[in-house]
């Protein structure tokens, strides 16, 4: 399950984050840069206050990539009693040497390398980190005024980072001026944690104090694990990783139609030999019937976002060549129906470059009855996936 990391500046904010349900308490000074470090005394005080209720991490600061400088600071923070030490890896020819210098410390403390999406992101560093005993890696942004994570790293590239971390045996995390609409877009990739600062603060100002209601809103958008021994390890209300909204949907409120219309993407598609080796424009039209949670939606907790559909299409397309339009439509339909509130989806896939008009396929898929009945009251899904019928077919 994905955990929620809350960045705090000391004891008082740590208590707020704990009350709001954060999984990891992360110490940093937001006024001192992307990875501004708090004093060692604040680290010790916060570790003592948290007292094992949650893991505590702390950043080393925006340090130059000098092996001995980074090693000394990381050791100082580790000795203050934190569970994780976060070290920024800025683009440098000395990055591997810095990782090697930290190898002895990695044997007794969990080290997390922080890479930056808005700088020269080098994912080839991941196996080097693993070789030197690092516990994990995360992607952040260095310039907080220069855009969010998804402005620099589109959603279809996120699974690549997550998978490469897993292949290297590293836990992985995502941060970078994340906002509430980003959460349902990032959860499908299955990161180990999502990190927040600005979204937790009053008016989303990262240098302001964190706000308990903002913390709770983020918490409600991220699935939580149930205590061991429960019938299900995951709260069914929170299973909708693609467009999550809290609480069991109420069928008496009816459905809304969420749609993506005339979404044109270059796709490697086609069964003919002349269609291989290049992309062609494909137009997607998707309409989803979504059960309402409330008749008075106020924020991302109450909606199914159309961003989920567009991100999903981009991610599917990024996997490589697809032989058939029908196969592409089925993949999109299955992705949308992963949200337990989606009752029905219509997907139209239209190839635009094979003649004077468009050709393609339109399919309709519905949620299985046993899945629909489990939505209210909450209960674990019984499987059964999808069923439906093609409304219109065309040559692929």
Automatic annotation (TrEMBL):
Residues 258-365 form the Dihydroneopterin aldolase/epimerase domain. InterPro entries: 4HFCP_synth, FolB_dom, GTP-CH-I_C/QueF. Pfam families: 4HFCP_synth, FolB. Keywords: Lyase, Schiff base. GO terms for molecular function: dihydroneopterin aldolase activity. Its EC number is 4.2.3.153. Residues 362-396 are annotated as: Disordered. GO terms for biological process: folic acid-containing compound metabolic process. SMART domains: FolB. It catalyses: 2 D-glyceraldehyde 3-phosphate = 4-(hydroxymethyl)-2-furancarboxaldehyde phosphate + phosphate + 2 H2O. It comes from the Bacteria. Residues 387-396 have a biased composition (Basic and acidic residues). Catalyzes the formation of 4-(hydroxymethyl)-2-furancarboxaldehyde phosphate (4-HFC-P) from two molecules of glyceraldehyde-3-P (GA-3-P). This is (5-formylfuran-3-yl)methyl phosphate synthase. It comes from Mesorhizobium zhangyense.
């Amino acid at each position: 399950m994905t955990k929620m990391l809350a960045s705090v500046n000391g004891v008082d904010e740590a208590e707020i984050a704990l009350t709001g349900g954060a999984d990891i308490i992360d110490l940093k000074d937001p006024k001192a840069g992307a990875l501004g470090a708090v004093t060692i005394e604040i680290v010790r005080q916060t570790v003592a206050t948290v007292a094992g209720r949650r893991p505590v991490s702390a950043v080393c600061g925006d340090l130059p990539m000098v092996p001995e400088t980074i090693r000394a600071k990381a050791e100082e923070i580790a000795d203050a009693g934190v569970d994780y030490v976060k070290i920024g890896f800025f683009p440098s020819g000395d990055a591997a040497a810095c990782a090697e210098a930290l190898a002895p410390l990695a044997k007794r403390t969990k080290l997390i390398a922080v890479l930056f999406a808005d700088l020269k992101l080098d994912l080839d560093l991941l196996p080097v980190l693993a070789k030197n005993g690092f516990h994990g890696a995360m992607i952040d942004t260095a310039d907080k005024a220069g855009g969010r994570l998804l402005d620099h790293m589109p959603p279809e590239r996120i699974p690549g980072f997550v998978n490469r971390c897993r292949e290297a045996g590293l836990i992985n995390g995502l941060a970078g001026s994340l906002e509430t609409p980003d959460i349902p877009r990032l959860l499908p990739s299955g990161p180990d944690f999502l990190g927040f600062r600005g979204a937790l603060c009053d008016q989303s100002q990262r240098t302001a104090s964190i706000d308990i209601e903002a913390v709770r809103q983020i918490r409600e958008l991220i699935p939580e694990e149930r205590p061991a021994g429960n019938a299900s390890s995951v709260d069914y209300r929170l299973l909708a990783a693609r467009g999550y909204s809290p609480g069991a949907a109420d069928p008496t409120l009816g459905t809304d139609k969420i749609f993506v219309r005339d979404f044109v993407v270059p796709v490697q598609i086609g069964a003919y030999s002349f269609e291989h080796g290049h992309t062609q424009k494909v137009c997607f039209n998707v309409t989803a019937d979504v059960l309402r949670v409330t008749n008075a939606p106020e924020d991302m907790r109450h909606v199914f976002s159309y961003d989920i559909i567009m991100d999903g299409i981009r991610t599917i397309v990024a996997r490589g060549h697809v032989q058939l339009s029908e196969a592409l439509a089925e993949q999109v339909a299955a992705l949308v129906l992963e949200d337990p509130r989606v009752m029905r989806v219509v997907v139209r896939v239209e190839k635009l470059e094979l003649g004077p008009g468009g050709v393609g396929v339109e399919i309709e898929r519905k949620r299985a009855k046993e899945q629909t009945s489990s939505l209210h009251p909450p209960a674990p899904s019984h499987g059964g996936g999808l069923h439906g019928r093609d409304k219109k077919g065309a040559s692929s």
